[in-house]
């Protein structure tokens, strides 16, 4: 039998029994659409997160106190407490030619008040470089001045939300606010677009690093943000940081340097795994659709017993009948999958209109594999009904009216 | 053309073995017109199915056109059915979702015949059987007589040498029945070997030869004297 004729016959079978075909197409379509949608969501989330990290600055390295790698040797009882990172450590990093900017960061929580209004917010102690390293924008006034970082100047910069809550619509620059037990003069307000994972930059106050250390009475830093001169210099910058800190910490490697790449890479891995997982869950609904195909095809075989008897009498071999019925299941699965793809992408497009931040587009591999999986399932679950059809005794089949 | 010797077909029903065909010897020449008669359950249809290669003999041998077809595989039997044998059934057995023309085309399609050739042959048989304007109708839009004519067209579109009809008029009124019989006889005149199972004595007497079966065996086998 010619392939075109096999397809034509299968198509006739699909068209000839509308209700069951529609149900099967629908089941398949829902399965494929959910694969497309869910992997699209996972992929969108991945892009969103990596995009956020990229916006932090592309050549960023983060120096954390302590080491998060496990090593052999003596247990921590013998005193491997990491040394604190200090402001001098941070300033020492300036010796490296691979490093463009250094922003030491101290973080604490302190009440900020203006007249009767009082807010408990994150207080960040840092230097003028922070503005560039974190790609922040100033709404009014200016950021921390380029002065000696050891100098505890009584000036501060407010996050947008904090400014609104303390001052409303009135100008804040030039006013004095109280942070903890000290008074600071407001010299600037951050613009609202400064957005980042983890810390809500809207709801914070930025003071010089020395002021924050005095405020929280600690010589240590929370971390040091370092910007390398270029992408290619990131590994060298990391090496320099480790060397410089080791020299200052009596030969101990007691800091951890995280590169932006590593962070993005990790999130990439996490979200790819997430995408695969939700895709896998959606694939289960495809398998369910496959089982439905098997059911419906079994019903089709018993409904069309006489037809099978006739084509056997007309000289169809077992193989031909097997091919015909499997093709019918395959055609149905493929058509359902095609509809599902269209549905999935349409739904993604609609979601993208409503939430433009999340760019929900299923990756091509997911769409292709959903399509292939659907057809394979259709064929696999079509085998049993087709075998049953092929094994029918033509005389018994024809004896029924 | 057909040589059955010692043909036996057993069915096991419960614990009993029923001989649907019991040691039948039969010789059929090419171009014969034979009516097979007998009471229900006498083995007429089993004989027809065995000759049509839809069924296998339990014992005995079957030679078709001097080839022993007794031990052939299912696929070889299917090929012989496709090339040499046409079937006409009491209940027509047209495929309801296919148009008349597609039903007729089906054996050619199964055989993988070229589409242009198929279309030409289908058009020709539709003309032959007075169905030229019925090609686009589905079976449920046709009368019983028309359906049986479509079925005959389907059975003969492959130009088989042997036509097997199981009660072809059993489900038709007299007029359409006559039409159908005339068509079958015309095919026989053109050289096709026609074997017809029937309950209708009048119809049986139109054949050249009448085989009467009882209990799976041939009780009588004689030429019909035409008046």
Verbal overview:
The complex is a heterodimer of chains A (401) and B (227). Chain A is of the alpha+beta class and 401 residues long. Helices cover 54% and strands 17% of the residues of chain A. Chain A has a six-stranded mixed barrel. In chain A, strand 2 and strand 3 form a beta hairpin. Chain A is elongated, with a radius of gyration of 33 Å. The relative contact order of chain A is 0.20. The model of chain A has no long low-confidence stretch (mean pLDDT 85). Chain B is of the alpha/beta class and 227 residues long. Chain B has a domain at 33-40 and 74-223: Rossmann fold. The longest helix of chain B is centred in the last third of the chain and has 16 residues, at 174-189. The two termini of chain B are 27 Å apart. Chain A binds chain B through residues 1-2, 4-5, 9, 12-13, 15-17, 306-307, 309-320, 394-395, 398, 401, and chain B through 49, 52, 54-55, 74-75, 78-83, 87, 89, 91, 93-98, 102, 106-107, 109-112, 115, 154, 158.
Which architecture name of the domain at 33-40 and 74-223 in chain B does CATH use? 3-Layer(aba) Sandwich
Which regions of chain A are unreliable across 5 or more consecutive residues at pLDDT < 50?
Answer: none
N to C succession of SSEs of chain B: EEEHEEHEHHHEHEHEE
Total tally of structural domains of chain A? 2
Q: Strand order, main sheet of chain B: write it out.
A: 6-7-8-3-9-10
Under CATH, the topology of the domain at 33-40 and 74-223 in chain B can be stated as: Rossmann fold
